[in-house]
C-alpha cells in the first residue's frame, strides 16, 4: 500500500481514543520511522501561562518542551476566548477553566493573531528541509461546551446573537445547536503547525501557509496523519484552536470552538521533502493549497495531487491530471483566515493490485 512516506520531493486524563491498536500497528508498518527511540516516551503538556504562545508562529519562539523523534505528547489545548465574554454569552462562571483565567490574566505577549496555542515543542533531529510527521492518535473533549462566533465570509447575515454557546454531550458525541438540532461531533485541532522560515518573522496564527498552522481542515481527526515541511531546527511544533465540529468552509469564521485534549506522535522524516503540507487518512490521501486568492490555492492543491500521483504511482503527468479529475474530490477547507484553504482527496481504494501504473 502506497503512503505519503514514499514521497521524495520538494485531557488531560480523559482521552477519547479513536484509533485501534491494529490501526496504529498498520501505520507503523506502512510508514517507516526515522530516528525513533525503541520505546517512545509519553510527555505531558497542559495549557498554562508557561506552556502556550498567544497568536503567532515564529522561528525564534522558545520551546516549552523538548522531545525525541517518535515520542508522544499528551497535550491539552485551550479554548480561544476570554472568560468575561464566555460568561456574557451564558457560560456559568464555575464552568470557565481556571487555566484559561490564568492565561488571560498572565500572558501579555500576544499577537498578531488571536489563537491560544500549546507549545512550541522542539523535536530533536529536525532540520530545515525535513518533514515532521504528526500522527493524531486520539482527541477528546476537555470541557462540556463550545461556542460559535459569527462574522466570516458574509457577516451581514449575523444576527444580534454573535456568540452561540453549544452544549457538548460527550456520551452521545453530539453538540446541541438548538432544540431539535444536534451536530455530530468530530473533534480536531484547527491549528497544527511548525515555525515558518526565519525570514518570515513572527507571523499571525490566523492564516495557514507552508508551515501548516491554522489549517481548519475537518479531515484531521484521530487516526489521521499530517505531514509538515520543516523550516527551522527542532521544527517548533504548536497546536491549538480546538474544534468539536466544523463544516467545510467554516463560513462564519468559527467552528464549535472548545478546549480539547489529545495524544500526538511527532516523527522526523528525513526521507521526505515537501513544499506544502499533506495528510493521510485511513481512506484517503490529501493535498493542500493556501493563498489569499482562491484560484491560486486551488491550483496549488491540484498540482500537489498531480505531483503526488507522479511520484508515488509512477504515472505520467497527463494521466495523473486526468485521474485527479475523475477520481479526486476538491473541497474548500476554509474561506475566512486571510489565506483561504483548499484540499483535494483521493481514495486509496482505487489503487488495486500490483499492475503497472496507467500511463
What does this molecule look like?
With 359 residues, the chain is an alpha+beta fold. It has two domains: 272 residues, Jelly Rolls; 67 residues, Acetamidase/Formamidase-like domains (Endonuclease I-creI, Roll). Helices cover 16% and strands 32% of the residues. It is built from five helices and 21 strands. It has a nine-stranded mixed β-sheet with strand order 1-5-17-7-15-18-19-21-20. Strands 2, 4, 6, 12, 14 and 16 form a six-stranded mixed β-sheet that branches. The protein has a four-stranded antiparallel β-sheet with strand order 8-9-10-11, with no helix packed on it. The chain is globular and about 60 Å long. The C terminus is likely disordered.
Amino acid at each position: 500500500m502506497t503512503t505519503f512516506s514514499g514521497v521524495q520531493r520538494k485531557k488531560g486524563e480523559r482521552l477519547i481514543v479513536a484509533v485501534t491498536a491494529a490501526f496504529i500497528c498498520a501505520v507503523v508498518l506502512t510508514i517507516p520511522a526515522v530516528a525513533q527511540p525503541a520505546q517512545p516516551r509519553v510527555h505531558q503538556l497542559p495549557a498554562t501561562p508557561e506552556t502556550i504562545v498567544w497568536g503567532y508562529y515564529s522561528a525564534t519562539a522558545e520551546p516549552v518542551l523538548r522531545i525525541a523523534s517518535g515520542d508522544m505528547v499528551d497535550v491539552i489545548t485551550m479554548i480561544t476566548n476570554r472568560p468575561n465574554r464566555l460568561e456574557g454569552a451564558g457560560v456559568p462562571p464555575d464552568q470557565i477553566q481556571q487555566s484559561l483565567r490564568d492565561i488571560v490574566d498572565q500572558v501579555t505577549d500576544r499577537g498578531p493573531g488571536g489563537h491560544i496555542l500549546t507549545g512550541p515543542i522542539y523535536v530533536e533531529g529536525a532540520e530545515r528541509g525535513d518533514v515532521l510527521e504528526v500522527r493524531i492518535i486520539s482527541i477528546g473533549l476537555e470541557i462540556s461546551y463550545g461556542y460559535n462566533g459569527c462574522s466570516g465570509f458574509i457577516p451581514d447575515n449575523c444576527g444580534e446573537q454573535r456568540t452561540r454557546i453549544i452544549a457538548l454531550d460527550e456520551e452521545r458525541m453530539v453538540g446541541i445547536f438548538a432544540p431539535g438540532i444536534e451536530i455530530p461531533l468530530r473533534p480536531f485541532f484547527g491549528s497544527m503547525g511548525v515555525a515558518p522560515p526565519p525570514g518570515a518573522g513572527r507571523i499571525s496564527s490566523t492564516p495557514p501557509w507552508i508551515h501548516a498552522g491554522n489549517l481548519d481542515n475537518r479531515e484531521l481527526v484521530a487516526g489521521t496523519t499530517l505531514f509538515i515541511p520543516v523550516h527551522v531546527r527542532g521544527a517548533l511544533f504548536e497546536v491549538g484552536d480546538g474544534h468539536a465540529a466544523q463544516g467545510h468552509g467554516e463560513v462564519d469564521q468559527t467552528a464549535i470552538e472548545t478546549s480539547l485534549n489529545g495524544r500526538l506522535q511527532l516523527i522526523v522524516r528525513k526521507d521526505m521533502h515537501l513544499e506544502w503540507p499533506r495528510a493521510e487518512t485511513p481512506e484517503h490521501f490529501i493535498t493542500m493549497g493556501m493563498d489569499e486568492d482562491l484560484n491560486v490555492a486551488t491550483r496549488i492543491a491540484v498540482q500537489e495531487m498531480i505531483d503526488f500521483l507522479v511520484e508515488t504511482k509512477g504515472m505520467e503527468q497527463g494521466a495523473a491530471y486526468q485521474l485527479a479529475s475523475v477520481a479526486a474530490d476538491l473541497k474548500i477547507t476554509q474561506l475566512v483566515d486571510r489565506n483561504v484553504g483548499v484540499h483535494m482527496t483521493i481514495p486509496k481504494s482505487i489503487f488495486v493490485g500490483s499492475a503497472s501504473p496507467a500511463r
